[in-house]
Amino acid sequence: MQTNDDREMLISFRVDENNKMPVLHQIIRIAVYDEYHAYETYKKVVETFGPVQPFVNIMQAEISHFEALSQLAKKYEVPLPVNDWEGKIEAPSSLLEASEVGVAAEIDNIRMYDRLIEYAKEYPDVLDLMQRLQAASYNNHLPALRQSVAKYSNENVDLKTIYEQFSAHTSDQEEGIKKIEEIGQMAQKLANGQLSQEEIIKLLGSTNLSFIGGALLGAVGAMIFSQMQKGSKANEKE
């Protein structure tokens, strides 16, 4: 497989003003290379788990982004970098992991465009495209992947794990059973989308959560976030 002589710069997602390559070339090559990485990442998810949303839509969007950047590269006679990401992306172990990786990648993408935009201001068409691609990540991809994290965190809440972790912190068996039942009812309501705003506040302020492990607390937090989003959207419709 061919490689890029400037791969170190491409991976850093940063323009090197001391590089012999023109800054405009660096901007476009970095953006294209990031699209390669994003496309291969989401393609691996689809290959592993099937045509699951939002990964299919985002993968198709990355193709459109690449095509738009290719037009700029052609206009300014910028040689496209080689896609050396193909076959190098490891498959995620779950859709939750895929969603979390996607969130991190989109945040990095937004930050990358912040840096590239600073160097693109002398080229209105380049600046416009960079801003539009950044907006797509911020307004479309990132929210969709955050919702995906909430969804799959929801499905991974394990009440048996809650019981085991809570039991390890209490010596009163009767009290422990009572508390577990309370947490279980809350978790079930969360899973079914039936938790009211008052109950969410109660859950957030409950000392019971101090017994839940970090990863599990993250899952519960994602579920709460998801329910609060639903409530907010319902209010907007009203």
List key phrases describing it.
mainly alpha; 238 residues; Ferritin; 2 domains
Molecular structure report:
This protein is mainly α and 238 residues long. The longest helix has 32 residues, at 124-155. The protein folds into 2 domains: 7-152, Ferritin (Up-down Bundle), CATH 1.20.1260; 159-237, no CATH class. The protein contains 9 helices and no strands. The chain has helices spanning 7-12, 23-49, 55-75, 95-119, 124-155, 159-167, 173-192, 197-204, 214-237. The chain starts with 6 loop residues before the first helix and ends with a helix.
The count of helical stretches stands at: 9
- N→C terminal distance: 56 Å
Estimated radius of gyration:
23 Å
State the CATH topology of the largest domain.
Ferritin
Low-pLDDT runs: 207-222, 224-233
Which class of secondary structure composition applies to the elements? mainly alpha
CATH architecture of the largest domain: Up-down Bundle
Mean pLDDT: 76
Query: CATH H level of the largest domain: which superfamily?
Result: Ferritin, core subunit, four-helix bundle
Q: What's the CATH class of the largest domain, please?
A: Mainly Alpha
- Quaternary arrangement of the chains shown? single chain
Percent of residues in helices: over 70%
